[in-house]
């Protein structure tokens, strides 16, 4: 059995006096698809954001690919460490966060070019492939303002993939979309899942979670209340809090 | 209204208007450079950069421009700074407007959505790279108009350099009043020139703003 690609131990996170994560342990193996579910405010985003250190950790350890993510380092070294780390961890946001002053293809090529990963021709070729993969080969020259929400989100996914990450983090990436645009984004994620990408997906879309994931984590109040394969967590939950959460969501 | 008099002396006002334009444009350039540097410094995590930048803004926005100018021109020689009126005018106005421009530029940078920085950093780009390629290009668009407002305030405010005898519009108006005793005509004439300069400048700002707004 190889080492998990993500290993979280005793993770706690405070915002001031508010404890948002209260001791999380988690192991994610290469190629696994984790779905992170739970009520609003349960700490899903915070957990996701500690993994790539958009949020600092108060206590505990996060390991990624054999390296301690939250090492104490002097500022400069920490920055270099984070940059290296983040090049291997893609993140997609609820509100896309595309760069509005760049075209779709420029959004995708920017980081690989700036980081000297590839030359211009290679970057463009790779970006075209990625845009094609997310079904937007004809939208490369569009500015984000000219794209629909679903298209923007697919460009954002392509932008992350351009760094060839080993792990992808998705934070409610379809929550801001009109319902009819959700499917096209979900399909892209599904395809990615089938390519053996390791993914952590925070979502309120439980049907999609059940469909795409091979491990579900139900969080409440900063703790993992229940976890397991989707068939168990969704069909035969053990904990009362899981049951009432599922009941509430499915009744809506 | 003595139109004959105006007809005779307007060319002198035109010449003075040119001086106003020169003083203002040089001061605006100086202000932009200082404002930009101070804005970046004030956003740095290094206190040795941040603190002086904040102090600069507080001091130069918190005291009258006229006093700053006098301090430089009349007080300067006491500490070994000898400047002609024109140089003192440009530097005095430039340092003063730089403090305002700093706040404008800083505001524009801070108004760029935090998600933009996060997206950039998540791709593995460094702080400086994100600033240069993600934040500043967006902030630049948002600062054109407010910087235009700063610059127009400076053009009008440049009248204060008449007090250190820079031969610009206001100074010229005063000079002709003492020889013609026609303050009404002289101030109207000066106003027309100010208005013309400001109008042309505003138009330029508007064009730049439209230009940068276009692509996106
Ligand atoms: N930067 C912050 N400063 C202070 N409190 C924060 C911050 N970010 C999140 N919180 C708080 O932490 C708690 C968990 O937030 P988090 O965003 O992780 O929840 P979530 O499970 O993602 O919720 P949602 O489903 O609404 O996105 C909430 O109470 C929130 O108000
Ligand atoms: Mg969230």
Shape of chain B: flat
Task: Summarize model confidence as the mean pLDDT of chain A.
Answer: 95
Gross geometry of chain A: globular
Query: How confident is the prediction overall: mean pLDDT of chain B?
Result: 95
The major beta sheet of chain B can be summarized as: none
Number of strands of chain B: 0
Sequence stretches where pLDDT stays below 50 over 5 or more residues of chain A: none
SS-derived structural category of chain B: mainly alpha
Q: Tell me the series of helices and strands of chain B, N- to C-terminal.
A: HHHHHHHH
Number of helices of chain B: 8
Largest interface: A-B, 32 and 22 residues
CATH topology of chain B: MetI-like fold
Q: Structural class of the secondary structure composition of chain A?
A: alpha/beta
The Rg value of chain B, from CA coordinates, equals: 21 Å
As a percent range, the share of strand residues of chain A is 15-25%
What's the alpha carbon Rg of chain A, rounded to whole Å?
18 Å
* Distance separating the two termini of chain B: 52 Å
């Amino acid at each position: 059995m190889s080492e998990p690609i993500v290993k979280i131990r005793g993770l706690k996170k405070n915002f001031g006096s508010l404890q948002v994560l209260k001791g999380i342990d988690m192991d994610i193996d290469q190629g696994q698809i984790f779905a992170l579910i739970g009520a609003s405010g349960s700490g899903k985003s915070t957990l996701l954001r500690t993994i790539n250190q958009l949020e600092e950790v108060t206590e505990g350890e996060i390991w990624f690919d054999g390296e301690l993510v939250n090492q104490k380092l002097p500022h400069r070294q920490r920055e270099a460490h984070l940059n290296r780390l983040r090049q291997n961890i893609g993140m997609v946001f609820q509100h896309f966060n595309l760069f509005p002053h760049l075209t779709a293809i420029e959004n995708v090529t920017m980081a690989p070019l700036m980081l000297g990963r590839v030359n211009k021709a290679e970057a463009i070729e790779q970006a075209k492939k990625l845009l094609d993969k997310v079904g937007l080969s004809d939208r490369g020259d569009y500015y984000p303002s000219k794209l629909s929400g679903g298209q923007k989100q697919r460009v954002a996914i392509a932008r992350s993939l351009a760094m060839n990450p080993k792990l992808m983090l998705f934070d409610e990436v379809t929550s801001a979309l009109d319902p009819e645009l959700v499917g096209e984004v979900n399909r892209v994620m599904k395809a990615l899942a089938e390519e053996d990408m390791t993914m952590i997906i925070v979502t309120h879309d439980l049907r999609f979670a059940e469909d795409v994931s091979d491990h579900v984590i139900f969080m409440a109040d900063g703790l993992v209340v229940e976890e397991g394969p989707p068939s168990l967590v969704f069909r035969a939950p053990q904990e009362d809090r899981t049951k009432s959460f599922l009941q509430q969501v499915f009744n809506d | 209204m003595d139109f004959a008099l105006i007809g005779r002396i307007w060319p002198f006002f035109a010449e003075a208007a040119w001086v106003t334009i020169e003083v203002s444009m040089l001061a605006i350039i100086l202000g932009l450079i200082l404002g930009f540097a101070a804005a970046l410094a004030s956003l740095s995590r290094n206190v040795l950069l941040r603190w002086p930048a904040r102090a600069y803004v507080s001091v130069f926005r918190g005291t009258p421009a006229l006093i700053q100018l006098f301090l430089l021109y009349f007080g300067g020689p006491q500490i070994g700074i000898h400047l002609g009126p024109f140089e003192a005018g440009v530097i005095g106005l430039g340092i003063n407007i730089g403090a305002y421009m700093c706040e404008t530029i800083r505001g524009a940078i801070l108004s760029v959505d935090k998600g933009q920085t996060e997206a950039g950093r998540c791709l593995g780009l460094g702080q400086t790279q994100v600033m240069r390629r993600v934040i500043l290009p967006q902030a630049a668009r948002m600062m054109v108009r407010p910087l235009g407002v700063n610059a127009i305030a400076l053009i009008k405010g440049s009248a204060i350099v008449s007090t250190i005898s820079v031969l610009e519009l206001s100074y010229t108006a005063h000079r002709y009043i003492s020889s013609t005793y026609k303050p009404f005509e002289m101030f109207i004439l000066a106003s027309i020139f100010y208005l013309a300069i400001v109008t042309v400048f505003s138009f330029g700002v508007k064009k730049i703003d439209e230009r940068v707004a276009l692509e996106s």
